[in-house]
Design goal:
Order of helices and strands: EHHHEEEEHHHEH
Bound molecules: iron/sulfur cluster
Distance between the termini: 17 Å
Largest sheet: 2 strands, antiparallel
């Protein structure tokens, strides 16, 4: 693997990954139930208000311009942070971004936390890859 010497990343909390280009945020059934419970809505209401079928699997909706439906533009914080999907917390250690240095560096052009900050060993990265619930989608 090209990342066998490890990679550097520390989230700077800028929120760009929540606001950037349109993209899918997938979630498991357990994550969907947790998000609905956190918001105090039932599964049907959650699906109607917050889920889109425009990607390859059910995904969180986006506002115009690609901002996640749960990104708070005032505080720049995630409104469901304690129960956010694992896809969010694994970023940028997604299979698609780890597939090549080019893919990683392309993502780093939008994320100022990549290629700097905390060192993550190959073992940590492999664990994140293994934890990805959607290895064929991300
Ligand atoms: S774009 Fe990068 S640095 Fe900014 S919030 Fe997202 S992960 Fe953190």
């Amino acid at each position: 693997m090209w990342w066998e010497e490890g990679l550097r990343f520390t989230c700077l909390g800028c929120g760009r990954c929540c606001r950037g280009e349109p993209g899918a945020i997938y979630f498991t059934p357990e994550e969907e139930a947790a998000m609905a419970a956190f918001l105090g809505v039932d599964a049907g209401e959650f699906r109607n208000r917050f889920v889109t079928g425009k990607w390859r699997a059910p995904s969180l909706k986006e506002k115009s311009g690609g901002e996640c439906v749960f990104h708070d533009a005032v505080t720049n914080l995630c409104r469901i942070y304690p129960v956010r999907p694992l896809q969010c917390s694994l970023f940028p250690f997604w299979p698609v971004l780890l597939a090549s240095p080019e893919a990683w560096d392309e993502a780093a052009r939008s994320c100022p936390g990549m290629n700097g900050g905390e060192f993550h060993s190959a073992e940590e990265i492999a664990l994140a890859m293994a934890a990805c619930p959607f290895p064929d989608l991300l």
